[in-house]
Amino acid sequence: MSDETTSPDDLFHEMAEQGHTAAKLDPRAKPVLTVEDLRMYFPVKAPGLVRRTVGHVQAVDGISFQVPEGGSLGLVGESGCGKSTTGRLITRLYKPTSGSMQFGGRDLATLSKRELKPVRRDVQMIFQDPYTSLNPRHTVGSIVGAPLAVHDIVPKNQIMPRVKELLEVVGLNPEHYNRYPNEFSGGQRQRIGIARALTLNPRLLVADEPVSALDVSIQAQVINLLQDLQKEFDIAFLFIAHDLAVVRHFCPEIAVMYLGKIVEIADRETLYATPHHPYTQALLSAVPDVKQAAVGGRRERIMLQGDVPSPVNPPSGCRFRTRCHLAQDICAKVEPPLLQIGPRHKVACHFAGELGKAPERPVTTGLLGVDDRGNPDASSTEPVDVELMTGSGYEDRWFDVGSRTVVSG
Ligand SMILES: Nc1ncnc2c1ncn2[C@@H]1O[C@H](COP(=O)(O)OP(=O)(O)OP(=O)(O)O)[C@@H](O)[C@H]1O
Ligand code: SF4
Ligand SMILES: [Mg+2]
């Protein structure tokens, strides 16, 4: 059943009725995954017989973040910004161009195929499209049981009982293990995909837009299921989505990506109440029930101008500058660092500020040793705290954009 008129408001109303409160942040949780300066450049080949490399798609370009143990980080941004590539790097479907991904004391980025095999059990992926991600010629039993067979975890005769148990956990009839994917609805298929991802008891699940192919009413059910599973099995999530409404419910912490970079990352309350990046502010203005600060007494949708530039040849300096209403000279010359500006808040913008309260002068000049136009400035103070601009986690001090000083928590 498709219901075109159901809004995100209705979706959350439905969730609330089912008794699921938004997931909470545990600031003391240790990271299960630490990603540092991760890059993925896909070669662009010239047509013809000699397929020379003529450029690179900079799909992911130097991102750093952490996913807390048993917690969930949301990853949001427009189509093509590098979300799926990030997920595929973490699950090592791709080998990164550079950077590191620390998980369980090992760097996933550098592990060989053989070394990866045991780690794959701990890091699983749920795919966006429940129609193409399941092999139509295999029964549900063999799809969900395949990882057990591949990893040789339980004796053959115990695979089917385990499969039935998993089907029950995700709310499917265990007696349907002999059926084929086309005998199930979209929501049920996604439950099969979730059961498959759970088969090996993962510690981290990368969920790549797990509900965006589903009707809104089914989306709520699947999100609730994921939340139940997270609590029950203590699984950490990297939850990829277009929809800021869905991420808000599931993720106590959210990173916003634009053209291969993270432009803002914060705990849910901070990101939704006081976003400091013009791109986040524009994305949030499209979410109907977010009480974002009003400009001039009005709360308007901020329309993004123009198209997303090509990741083969991204704009110099700040990648968002070609669509940013605040852009000035410095934005074309100097890339803004992802700077910690609060206890759990980082932003990459020379003019970081609350909606409608952007500073007139760039806030980053003293830190970067440049003048207001982005030219080197010998009289400027030395860069203060490199950690505040490069770390994957949070420091207990940060750069206060109002006073332009480093303050302690
Ligand atoms: N295997 C590949 N080879 C070359 N380019 C790729 C490959 N995979 C992705 N890209 C490019 O990398 C960029 C990021 O793609 P990605 O799929 O990660 O975006 P996304 O944020 O997941 O988008 P969507 O919301 O549409 O799923 C895009 O420009 C895409 O065309
Ligand atoms: S750095 Fe400049 S162009 Fe980039 S988001 Fe900030 S104001 Fe806009
Ligand atoms: Mg994608």
TrEMBL record:
InterPro entries: AAA+_ATPase, ABC_transp_ATP-bind, ABC_transporter-like_ATP-bd, ABC_transporter-like_CS, Oligopep_ABC_C, P-loop_NTPase
Listed transmembrane segments: none
A GO biological-process term: transmembrane transport
Superkingdom of origin organism: Bacteria
Keywords, alphabetical: ATP-binding, Nucleotide-binding, Transport
GO function term, MF aspect, one: ATP binding
Entry's family note: Belongs to the ABC transporter superfamily.
Protein name per Swiss-Prot or TrEMBL: Peptide/nickel transport system ATP-binding protein/oligopeptide transport system ATP-binding protein
Provenance organism: Nocardioides lianchengensis
